[in-house]
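TODO from last week: model Aspartyl/asparaginy/proline hydroxylase domain-containing protein.
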Amino acid sequence: RRYHAEALEAKRRAPAAPSNAELATSYAAIATDCMMTFELEAALVHVRQAQALQGLPPAAMAVLFRQEADIHRCADDFSSALHRFEHAEKLSPQLDEKQALKHLELLRLTLASSGNSMPQQVRNAMSARVRHISAQLLAHGPWQRADQLPQRFLPGLLAKPWHLLPGQGPDEATSSGSRADEAAAAWRQSQEWLKQGLSLLRSSHLSLVDEYADLDREGLLRRDTECIHRLHEAGAWRRFEVNAVWEARGADGCAEASPSACALVRKLRAAGMPLIRAGYSAVGPRAWLKPHHGVTNGQLKWHLGLRVPGDCATMRVGNESRSWTEGEVLFFDDSFEHEVWNRCSSERVVFQLVFAHPQLSLIYGGAVETAALRATDDH
């Protein structure tokens, strides 16, 4: 942020006056920096300074209004976010799927947060727009169901909001596409490493509980900056990613501050689990992680409960909500719409494992699989 502020000041002092386009770029960069530290009022000030500049083309103004929409969304002001986003679309229509997904998300968040207070006619019209955009995405994109709309969708993979753990019963190993039988066989074959991985994870429960306490005491958990969680009068969402590039890591690419988690990661990979990343996730009291989709259906997730204050902490995936249990594992597909509530008075902590979908290698081998796994690491 200091760098962008100094760059802006340097432009102002330059012998040749900076163009309004250059100033707008600087203001927008500072606004982005403010968002990263949750200084949302300051972010709004800077993006509006950019919007007030004269002579910017409609496409540039649209970018600034989309940025303002992101700020309002982060501040839980979904109605304002939707208004700014739709204004940007009028200035410079973008018919790509990414913008359609964002539009759909804002419509749903607005309905969920203030739909009951809207006039019936307005609510019905907004609901109709949700159905229309969903239908367009399903008709023209790769997606197959309205509740599973990740940015990167890979057809043919088994899709269920919640999966059964090994030993809980036969999971539905059904898939669509020309290689459905092979894909079903790949899912069944994965049960061996899923079973081994589950045993390793459960047996690490107490050591992970202790390690989380050490990380928390040393102040090593980072507040999440994705603006998925509610900010006002609520606890923070904090994480420690075991294999994050910003942590001090050993030769195996695992964080030196989490030896217990790293030992588990090595064992899981040795057992054949196609692990993408692992880490601790702590959701503070009264926190809400807003409804959203994971970046791709090419990954699945396990949550091991470490600190669970009770049934007042829940996660909804698709249409079903569940609670965590200390020492037990939840198995889900975060490409389905999901949200987390912690209505308790203390934090909820889990250890999360993210791994490649068991059918990914068979259906999307080689370069496509590598790209899919790299994409999951963005989220």
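Done. The longest helix spans residues 120-140.
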